[in-house]
TrEMBL record:
InterPro entries, alphabetized: GPCR_opsins (IPR050125), GPCR_Rhodpsn (IPR000276), GPCR_Rhodpsn_7TM (IPR017452), Opsin (IPR001760), Retinal_BS (IPR027430)
Annotated organism of origin: Oncorhynchus mykiss
Composition skew (Low complexity), residue ranges: 346-363
PANTHER family registered for this protein in UniProt: OPSIN
Record-annotated membrane-spanning stretches: 37-62, 74-95, 111-132, 153-178, 198-228, 261-287
High-level lineage: Eukaryota, Metazoa, Chordata, Craniata, Vertebrata
Official protein name in the record: Opsin 4b
Length: 473
């Protein structure tokens, strides 16, 4: 027979172990225990990965001077929200899964759900800010130049947090509520109850926190794509690119790389939260009876897994992030596949992926006959592969070159013949030769700018100074 037991009678009355109904503070669901254990273990693995990965992102971006730009502050804020999401959600969810129920009480349930809502909404608004920032930098470069400073970036991030706080607090004051969900091992806002209060909150929450930001993000990236395509076609029609047009096109091309990485982050975030949104909208439409505990818990777990996308993407696509991590945490360089020569080289750490190395070798036949060698390495690119830095650096440094070898030599047939040979990664070999008298050897200079169509402009100049060095024009 069914016996109702209290906490005191469970240890004394053996009949309670046959079949008992315990009055727990929160309801439970009748599912196999291993389902709880499996889901809890998955969330634990995701949470640990998210905590470690997002901490490394924040550490690298805050420690490296080349990564501390106003635009990258939004990346740090995104990593912070994901890190806090993992810290506040993972341990509690795992412990509850091991007990097959919620064990921390009503107030803890509300706080747990509030943290999940706050950090999730802040992540979405931060992604919106990143998309808008990329939109202005690429489509309106002159108007946006110098506008976003670190202080203004802090103001924008504070506004994102306050906006998310505004939509996270109402359940504490009776507009909807924070309740257990799914397998009853986690809590969220109440989207299952078919009441005017719950339905109105759910509707406005989706409109102002999910759909409107998503539409703005889509609009921004459509405009970015159109602007980059138009600029690329315009440059393709130019037979001989001018210095300003080449510089402008290179900057836009680099910013497009930044936008693509941000787009990947946004798409993965939306895909992660889409199943959970579909479940909530299904309940909002009045079909909550069709949803099973698994249909609530699994999408919630997928949504929480969005916290690991940010560090993984930047570990794969951001070379300066990998170099920063390998420099400050050496053993991570092996995991991130950073070459040893780059791992222990300060110049390669400070330079971008598109480093330029200009090496000149000249000899003075009238003096010592020994070759003189000078090299110039672009140790700090004006733009990283993920975030533009035009607002914090002068325009004269916003050109990065793609030259891998530059070697002027004197012809064997004529001592006064200066031959300049350039080998680029994609642009082939270029030679520029000029003849001078033996007493007036030539020194050649190179201006090589890489754009999306791989345009190369070589300028040969003459100088009476045998020891003149190569530099960027």
């Amino acid at each position: 027979s069914e016996v109702e037991c209290t906490y005191s009678t469970i240890s004394w009355n053996s009949s309670c172990w046959v079949a008992m109904t315990v009055r727990w503070p929160f309801p439970t669901v009748d599912v196999p225990d291993h389902h709880h254990y499996t889901l809890g273990s998955v969330i634990l693995a995701v949470g640990i990965t998210g905590m470690v990965g997002n901490f490394l992102v924040m550490y690298a971006f805050c420690r490296s001077r080349s990564l501390r730009t106003p635009a990258n502050m939004f990346i740090i804020n995104l990593a912070l929200t994901d890190f806090l999401m993992c810290v506040t959600q993972t341990p509690i969810f795992f412990i509850n899964s091991m007990h097959n129920r919620w064990i921390f009480g009503e107030k803890a349930c509300e706080l747990y759900a509030f943290c999940g809502a706050l950090f999730g909404m802040t992540s979405m608004i931060t992604l919106l800010v990143i998309a808008v920032d990329r939109y202005f930098v690429i489509t309106r470069p002159l108007a946006s130049m110098g506008v976003m400073s670190r202080r203004r970036a802090l103001y924008v991030m504070a506004a994102a947090w306050f906006y998310s706080m505004f939509w996270s607090l109402p359940p504490f004051f009776g507009w909807s509520a924070y309740v257990p969900e799914g397998l009853m091992t986690s809590c969220s806002w109440d989207y299952m109850t078919f009441t005017p209060s719950v339905r109105s909150y759910t509707m406005l929450l989706f409109i102002f926190v999910f759909f409107i930001p998503l539409f703005i993000i889509i609009y921004c990236y459509i405009c970015i794509f159109i602007a980059v395509r138009s600029a690329t076609r315009a440059v393709c029609k130019i037979n001989e690119g001018t210095r300003d047009s080449v510089k402008s096109m290179h900057k836009m091309r680099t910013e497009w790389k930044t936008a693509k990485i941000a787009l990947i982050v946004i798409l993965l975030y939306v895909i992660s939260w889409a199943p959970y949104s579909c479940v909530a909208l299904t309940a909002f439409a009045g079909y909550a009876d069709m949803l099973t505990p698994y249909m609530n818990s699994v999408p919630a777990a997928i949504a929480k897994a969005s916290a690991i996308h940010n560090p993984i993407i930047y570990a794969i696509t951001h070379p300066k992030y990998r170099l920063a991590i390998s420099r400050y945490i050496p053993f991570m360089g092996v995991l991130l596949c950073v070459p040893t020569r780059d791992r222990y080289s300060n110049s390669s750490f400070m330079s971008s992926t598109r480093r330029s190395t200009l090496t000149s070798t000249t000899s003075d036949p009238g003096k010592t006959g020994k070759p003189r060698q000078s090299s110039l390495s672009d140790s700090e690119s004006a733009f990283t592969d993920t975030e533009g830095q035009h607002s914090s650096r002068p325009a004269s440094r916003q050109v990065s070159s793609d030259v891998t070898q530059l070697q002027p030599t004197f012809s064997q047939r004529s001592k006064g013949h200066c031959s300049l040979k350039v080998k680029g990664r994609d642009s082939g070999a270029f030679e520029k030769a000029a003849s001078q008298s033996p007493s007036d050897p030539a020194v050649c200079r190179l201006q090589h700018v890489t754009v999306s169509v791989r345009m190369c402009v070589c300028v040969s100049r003459f100088n009476t100074d045998v020891g003149s060095k190569f530099d960027h024009l």
